């Protein structure tokens, strides 16, 4: 019976709680596809720098629209990213400035970052859904311990919730810093260099967030979760004897 519960918990957890990679897969697609298509349009088809940037920027916008249509439900963050993309593209076409086109990508990163930080302020850290599967791993006892810690019923709940918020804050700050670096680079670095350097900025920001967030929040939370599992296991026999 316990084994079945564990298996069911694992299946439900995987369906309902996407991993950190799942959360950021669209962002990675929005980096890899435009980068490859930029060089294809510019070097393969001989387009101008501005035209290549414009056409390569259409793909993320179309993907976001398709995601909204496919899910058939409102997604605030996806909607904001779509608005940023469309407004920036229109401004870029009006001005004809390829640097504004590059700076646009910083607007997308800042939108994600602000969304994460606002979610922390509202008490619903956005990155928690991606972090949970790494900690719970489909284990029924860990799932129960997680719920106790998150509900405030456990002794270590306060510290656990602080670490939960810290994880999202780290990601929000890292992406906001990446946005600043990208915008500054868009107006100070040669355009052809900034096309690939912007990708380096994003990968670097995500790597830093993984390392810092892991050490600052994930590892301590993993220990607190293990301690809560042990506490729950010890309480079960005592409750059975008392009954």
Describe the fold and architecture.
- The structure is a single chain.
- The protein is mainly α and 243 residues long.
- The chain contains nine helices and no strands.
- The chain is elongated.
- Mean pLDDT is 76; it is low at 1-17 and 238-242.
How would you briefly describe this protein structure?
The chain is mainly alpha-helical and 243 residues long. The chain contains 9 helices and no strands.
Structural topology:
Blueprint: H1 2-16, H2 20-44, H3 49-71, H4 76-95, H5 98-121, H6 128-136, H7 140-151, H8 157-188, H9 191-242
Helix pairs in contact: 2-3, 3-4, 4-5, 5-8, 5-9, 7-8, 7-9, 8-9
Report the sheet with the most strands, covering strand number, pairing sense and barrel closure: none
Global mean pLDDT:
76
β-sheet strand percentage: under 5%
Shape, please? elongated
Helix content: over 70%
Number of strands: 0
Rg measurement, Å = 22 Å
Q: Can you count the helices?
A: 9
Q: How far do the termini sit from each other?
A: 22 Å
Low-confidence stretches: 1-17, 238-242
The secondary structure category is mainly alpha
Helix and strand sequence: HHHHHHHHH
Compute the number of structural domains.
Answer: 1
Task: Provide the descriptors you would attach to this structure in a database record.
mainly alpha, 243 residues, transmembrane, disordered N terminus, 9 helices
